[in-house]
Amino acid sequence: MGPKDIVEFVDGALKLLSERDLWKPFLVVALTLSFGAFWIGWWLRRRSGAKLTCPARHLTPKEDALLANLDALNDALDKPEEELWQFRKTIVPRELLDRIHASKMKVLTLTNLKGGVGKTTLAANLAAYFHERDKRVLLIDFDFQGSLSTTVSRAARRTEATSESDKILTGRLSADNVASATFTLGGPLRHLSLIPAGYELNRQENRMLMRWLLGLDADDPRFALARLLAQERITKTFNLVIIDTPPRLTLATINALCASTHFVVPTILDDASIENVPALLRQVRHWFRDELNRSIELAGVVGTMTPRIDLGQTEERARDTVTRRAAEAWGPSTYIFNTSVPDNARFREDAGRTIAYLDTRATNSATRDVIDALGAETAERIGL
Ligand SMILES: Nc1ncnc2c1ncn2[C@@H]1O[C@H](COP(=O)(O)OP(=O)(O)O)[C@@H](O)[C@H]1O
Ligand SMILES: [Mg+2]
Q1: What lines the ligand 1 site, CB under 6 Å?
Q2: Are 17 and 142 part of one and the same domain?
Q3: Which ligand is nearest to the CA of 146?
Q4: For ligand 1, what atom is nearest to the CA of residue 147?
């Protein structure tokens, strides 16, 4: 049967249909058949498709672990920030921490979960104070905004520093590098070392938290700084490490508190500012001292930006309140510094440019006197 025969056959059939008026029932049957065929085809495709894309098989142990991690991550993200860190079982590297606490080197963190209370100003001025007393000081900027890095670099007449403290968290900073001249500043701060911070710190903090939550790293990232500072090359080189932190419990702040021998809480002495101090003290007490870093000590709470060196009535009242409430949170060993730092234009104007303590002009003697008193009190508190 050739194509010509087919054409003749179709032609004949059409003629027959139109002569006998059969085309209407024919059309209905044809439409019903094609609809049925389409539906059966779709149903068959769906059944076989389901089989092809989801074969029943057992997960490999790696896939199993990954799924468990994703479940854990999902749960963890529902919890408050600090509870994220309690999600995995903590193995405290006691031997490392004992090495830091047993050495002569002191590690001092300045912390307050409130911003603008004078942490960075105090860190820079205390570093200058101890540098002048021939102590080998290592300053670590753990605030990604890098205010301390800018201030101290400019005071040392150095070009602005790039972010390096992020490498502490990722373990890419060797003790040799830190202890050698790499981070030593010149000019009036020739014996001071600075590990600067920049935005990269924030990026690495987020990355390290994610990696830890997913269980990708064997080492607990909260003890990265402790791993660095515990090395003999560091404990034998430096007398004092001062760490400036941001007003949050970031991974860097947690690292600082996990590696510190002491911490100081600077606070403005007014009702709004002292409100958060007891909560912070409680947190350091129960989370760090009871669990992560058992030997950490509170050097003390320092009043900052007070109207005068001798406190007014409002500050005295705030000081009494903070003394009482801090003692409730930290216990009877809570210490409030006798020296408070008055509000002084020198500190404000020098921020981001230089360190007020380096200005030895007679007109600046009041500022120097305050830092001298505070430095002496700090040295006594931390045993330096
Ligand atoms: N004792 C002080 N007197 C006057 N201004 C101060 C004093 N201490 C800090 N400041 C200013 O207050 C602002 C915040 O201080 P800073 O040290 O950066 O606080 P933090 O690090 O807690 O955020 C800065 O502009 C700083 O110059
Ligand atoms: Mg700061």
Answers
A1: 115-121, 147, 304-305, 341, 343-344, 347-348, 351
A2: no
A3: 2
A4: 18
Atom of ligand 1 nearest to the CA of 244: 21
* Crossing angle for the helix pair 199-213 and 61-76, to the nearest 10 degrees: 120
| CA-CA-CA-CA dihedral for 219, 225, 229, 231, to nearest 10 | 20
Nearest ligand for residue 112 CA: 1
CA distance 266 to 119: 6
* Chain-centre distance for alpha carbon 333: 29
Among 29, 54, 78, residue at a domain's last position: 78
Q: Which residue has the higher pLDDT, 106 or 56?
A: 106
Nearest protein Cα to ligand 1, atom 8: 118
Tell whether 327 and 205 lie within a shared domain. yes
Q: How far is the CA of 173 from the centre of ligand 2 (A)?
A: 23
Q: Identify which ligand lies nearest to the alpha carbon of 356.
A: 1
Domain with 275 in it: 94-382
Domain contains 84: no
Q: How far apart are the C-alpha atoms of 218 and 274, rounded to whole Å?
A: 39
Residue 193 Cα to ligand 1 midpoint, Å, equals 22
Most distant CA atoms of the chain, gap in Å: 123
Q: Tally Cβ neighbours within 10 Å of residue 276.
A: 16
> For 253-312, how does the pLDDT look when each residue is reduced to its tens digit (9 = 90+)?
999 999 999 999 999 988 888 888 999 999 999 999 999 999 999 999 999 998 866 667
